[in-house]
Amino acid sequence: MTAVLINTTKQMKQKNIMLVANTIKSLVSATKGDISIKTGLSLATCGTILNELCVKGEVIEESLDQSRGGRPAKRYKYNASYFSVLSVYVEGVGNSGMISSSLTSADGKKIEEYNEIYHDFTVDKLMIHIQNVIDKHSNIKAIGLGLPGVVVDGKVLTCDIPRIEDLAIAELLSHKLGIFVQVGNDMNYAAFGFYRHNCRNINDPIAYIYMPPRHCAGCGIVISGEMLRGASQFAGEVSKLPFYDDLENEASNNAQINLTLEKLINITSSLIAIINPATIAISGSKISQHCIDELSAKLLEKFDSQHIPHFVYRDSIKSDYHYGIFEYTLDAYNNFRVFDI
């Protein structure tokens, strides 16, 4: 997420509120003293913020710690049911595919998942799917939507699902549902989810390559905790690399060529030379751990071992994708509700 510039006393207070709330989430249960030590804020500041959060219901006051001679310390925990986030993604070919949604509490616990196969996609079907989930869970305050395409400022410029193209989908959903909505690219979300779950706080570049069965390969990149989108949100469109079409043509004339492996060699070579990633996660229907082992051996013929990233095989993109949508949407919603941006 883009960092919020703190330049007023009010914004500093708002930043401290989020710091305390996030600290309680990470500690699960904590006293005012625990929070003060963890955040570096004074006991008085922590006390004021905790009182405000308790009044709102975002934080719950637990039973008192056992006294050791003085006044017993109050304990606090984050209210997991204060609000929830719905992550949704659409995947498919043409007008057939799947809508997958996952509901997660504000403290990161998965509540429920819903998957729906569609054969004639329309935006109304997507709306009905989301509305059905909202009707079952009244505390959903934010929705994140992932799409296989180029999304700029909530508008879909290109997409594997033609009926979504040219739609200002974020504005449309937000207006109809009355809920905070943000929309993004599938590979950016998957890379962000993998990063947050496996490489959090690592500043080195992390990449995520996905090779779906019927579409071109895609790539998401995270550097210093931020998605790399590019100037026109086109970063990661590795199928536009110059070798891609040539390999397709060569494979049609040479049955012996392992097209998947050859594509991976060229994609990962490009990434190594340009962003020098520490880790590359790879997923796809034709990907296996054996394929990744072969890839590493081939790359050692081109690069010194110190430049070869750590490869991680992902048997499915689903968990990384949903987690990335949740984490990014939660950050965006917290900035929206606290800083009004």
Automatic annotation (TrEMBL):
Pfam families: ROK. Signal peptide: none annotated. It comes from the Bacteria. Belongs to the ROK (NagC/XylR) family. This is ROK family protein.
